[in-house]
């Protein structure tokens, strides 16, 4: 089958279109013919090799972490799906490979595609939807009237998280560029900070939760807008020891990650707030919950641009540029 692969870690030049064997089907797997896949910053970090210590893939590697498509074959133990079903999923972290014609994926990671969206829209949802769902419901445990700051509200995760947080009854602030202010307000943001002209620390105070998707300087500045007992949850900051334990990493890596996150954890403690790093997990059950919200019109997919499969390298470059408004999609069919 055709697939976009990397033979070694590095820059965008390392990604090439090539032939790979059709994936093997295990007893609890579905073989899915991929119609559309989504490009995520995670793909760029995997391609560069930044995650190779905690995600040690064998090369050559097919990139791609979420998808929508049609079931063509099922394993002997599969009970919830049949050939012909339209589905969407976030792959297991050990078995990525959505930039291809086919993928073999565990049944428990898959859900039926929401009825009211296209394949391209469905492919935009799994990774960002599950990330927002798990952060807001499990890590943050958002309650009605609580105040949450969601950074980069026009991005893939941010645009979904704004809609979900509003549905949960939260008071939502977000950061974005001047051009996207009106748009993120339509998504549901109560307060919008134009990061080009304002410092969010001078505007926001006593927040319950900050959902950070940017890391770096923004991560540390975010500590200052939280009230005592607040939570700073990041998908872009330094991984912590809790993450290392969940990933069952070696003792040496656990120690290394503890050291990497020491500064931000120390500053969080000084501000009397909690810092945690988040890495989402696949869940077909949660995708079914998300499908209900999509079909009811409570949450809308946000697709910035669709690239043909042959232009996958250009799609990665577009995301790397940091200008995407919502999600960038690769269309196979």
UniProtKB/TrEMBL annotation:
Alphabetized Pfam families for the sequence: ADH_N, ADH_zinc_N_2
Every Enoyl reductase (ER) domain range: 10-330
**What top-level class of enzyme does the UniProt entry assign?**
oxidoreductase
- Native organism: Pectinatus haikarae
Looking up InterPro entries in the UniProt record yields: ADH-like_N (IPR013154), ER (IPR020843), GroES-like_sf (IPR011032), NAD(P)-bd_dom_sf (IPR036291), YIM1/Zinc_Alcohol_DH_Fams (IPR050700)
Keyword Glycoprotein belongs to the record? no
Sorted UniProt keywords: Oxidoreductase
Documented EC number(s) = 1.1.1.1
Q: What is this protein called?
A: Alcohol dehydrogenase
CDD domains attached to this UniProt entry? MDR_like_2
For this UniProt entry, the molecular function terms from Gene Ontology, in alphabetical order, are:
alcohol dehydrogenase (NAD+) activity
């Amino acid at each position: 089958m055709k697939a976009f692969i990397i033979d070694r870690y590095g820059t965008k030049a390392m990604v090439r279109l090539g032939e790979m064997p059709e994936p093997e089907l295990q007893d609890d797997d579905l073989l899915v013919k991929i119609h559309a896949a989504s490009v995520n910053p995670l793909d760029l970090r995997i391609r560069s090799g930044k995650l190779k210590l905690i995600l040690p893939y064998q090369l050559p590697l097919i990139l791609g972490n979420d998808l929508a498509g049609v079931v063509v074959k099922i394993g002997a133990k599969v009970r919830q799906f049949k050939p012909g079903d339209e589905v969407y999923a976030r792959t297991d972290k050990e078995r990525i490979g959505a930039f291809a014609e086919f993928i073999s994926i565990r049944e428990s990671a898959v859900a039926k595609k929401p009825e009211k969206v296209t394949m391209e829209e469905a492919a935009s949802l799994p990774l960002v939807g599950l990330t927002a769902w798990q952060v807001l419901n499990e890590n943050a445990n958002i309650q009605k009237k609580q105040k949450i700051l969601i950074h980069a509200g026009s991005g893939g995760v941010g645009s979904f998280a704004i809609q979900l947080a509003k549905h949960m009854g939260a008071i939502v602030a977000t950061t974005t560029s001047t051009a996207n202010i009106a748009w993120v307000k339509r998504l549901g943001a109560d307060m919008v900070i134009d990061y080009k002209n304002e410092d969010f620390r001078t505007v926001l105070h006593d927040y319950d939760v900050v959902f950070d998707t940017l890391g770096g300087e923004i991560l540390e500045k975010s500590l200052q807008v939280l009230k005592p007992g607040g939570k700073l949850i990041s998908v872009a900051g330094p991984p912590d020891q809790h993450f290392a334990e969940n990933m069952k990493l070696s003792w040496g890596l656990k120690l290394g990650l503890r050291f990497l996150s020491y500064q931000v954890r120390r500053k969080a403690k000084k501000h009397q707030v909690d810092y945690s790093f988040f890495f989402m997990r696949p869940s077909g059950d949660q995708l079914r919950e998300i499908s209900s919200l999509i079909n009811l019109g409570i949450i809308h997919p946000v697709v910035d641009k669709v690239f043909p499969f042959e232009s996958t390298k250009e799609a990665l470059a577009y995301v790397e540029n940091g200008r995407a408004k919502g999600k960038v999609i690769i269309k196979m069919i």
